[in-house]
């Protein structure tokens, strides 16, 4: 059963009207037509979108795209789809695509739940990345967190057998919740006893480095599809 985005649900993001830089606006205009995939209520043909057949990894909420471009550049044999709602982030990643000549990245500017429901075929993804989702750290806002059981079930259904789900957070109570929710999903299996070592492909962000210097923790979770 699909996680129906038409039902009344609490969104995990707030749409912000961020300011576009001149370079981001130029990237949207010049590179958007090639690298931006328009949201549609129809399955996306990965091979047609990328012009080749390769394992596809989906990243949800890529922010300004620095981590996404780093990983895509380091894994040219894989294709990446980044989903983000905020226009400055989309413009920023398009700018990096142009600067680094990345051909294995496509972006969708839309709500991830609807993208997963409508555009991503079941059992089609080699991996999913969810890095530092909004922690909604006030207790009364915890229900807005992205990684809730229905969404995790949806993600698991889109993974191919043996595919992986990699989440990371710098909020310990969110990490505890993630571990509980992911561990309760029958389609997923933890690759570690609890939290996973940071995979080498995920770079440290500048905020993460700053947090580590201040003694803050970061928790990675890597689960695979049974």
Automatic annotation (TrEMBL):
Pathway: tRNA modification; N(7)-methylguanine-tRNA biosynthesis
Keywords, sorted A to Z: Methyltransferase, S-adenosyl-L-methionine, Transferase, tRNA processing
SUPFAM superfamilies, alphabetized: S-adenosyl-L-methionine-dependent methyltransferases
InterPro entries in the cross-refs: SAM-dependent_MTases_sf (IPR029063), tRNA_(Gua-N-7)_MeTrfase_Trmb (IPR003358), tRNA_methyltr_TrmB_bact (IPR055361)
Residues engaged in binding S-adenosyl-L-methionine: 59, 84, 111, 134
Span list, region Interaction with RNA: 140-145
GO cellular component: tRNA methyltransferase complex
GO MF term (any one): tRNA (guanine(46)-N7)-methyltransferase activity
UniProt binding sites for substrate: 138, 170, 205-208
Reactions accelerated catalytically: guanosine(46) in tRNA + S-adenosyl-L-methionine = N(7)-methylguanosine(46) in tRNA + S-adenosyl-L-homocysteine
Enzyme Commission numbers on file: 2.1.1.33
Function: Catalyzes the formation of N(7)-methylguanine at position 46 (m7G46) in tRNA.
Family: Belongs to the class I-like SAM-binding methyltransferase superfamily. TrmB family.
Record HAMAP family: tRNA_methyltr_TrmB
UniProt-listed PANTHER family: 3-DEOXY-D-MANNO-OCTULOSONIC-ACID TRANSFERASE/TRNA GUANINE-N 7 - -METHYLTRANSFERASE, PENTACOTRIPEPTIDE-REPEAT REGION OF PRORP DOMAIN-CONTAINING PROTEIN
Name used for this protein in its record: tRNA (guanine-N(7)-)-methyltransferase
Organism expressing this protein natively: Massilia violaceinigra
Taxonomic classification: Bacteria, Pseudomonadati, Pseudomonadota, Betaproteobacteria, Burkholderiales
């Amino acid at each position: 059963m699909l996680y129906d985005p038409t039902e009344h649900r609490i969104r995990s993001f707030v749409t912000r009207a961020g300011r576009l830089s001149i370079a981001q606006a130029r990237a949207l205009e010049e590179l958007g037509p090639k690298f931006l995939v328009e949201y549609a209520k129809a399955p996306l043909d990965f091979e047609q979108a990328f012009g080749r057949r390769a394992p596809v990894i989906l990243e949800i909420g890529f922010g300004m795209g620095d981590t996404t471009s780093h990983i895509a550049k380091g894994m040219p044999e894989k294709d990446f789809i980044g989903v983000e709602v905020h226009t400055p982030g989309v413009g920023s990643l398009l700018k990096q695509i142009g600067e680094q000549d990345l051909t294995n990245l496509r972006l969708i500017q839309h709500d991830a739940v609807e993208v997963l429901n409508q555009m991503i075929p079941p059992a089609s993804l080699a991996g999913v990345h969810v890095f530092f989702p909004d922690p909604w750290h006030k207790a009364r806002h915890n229900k807005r967190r992205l990684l809730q059981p229905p969404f995790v079930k949806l993600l698991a259904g889109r993974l191919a057998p043996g595919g992986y789900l990699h989440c990371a957070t710098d909020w310990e109570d969110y990490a505890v919740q993630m571990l509980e929710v992911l561990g309760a999903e029958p389609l997923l299996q933890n690759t570690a006893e609890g939290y996973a070592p940071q995979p080498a492909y995920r770079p440290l962000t500048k905020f993460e480095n700053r947090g580590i210097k201040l003694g803050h923790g970061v928790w990675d979770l890597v689960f695979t599809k049974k």
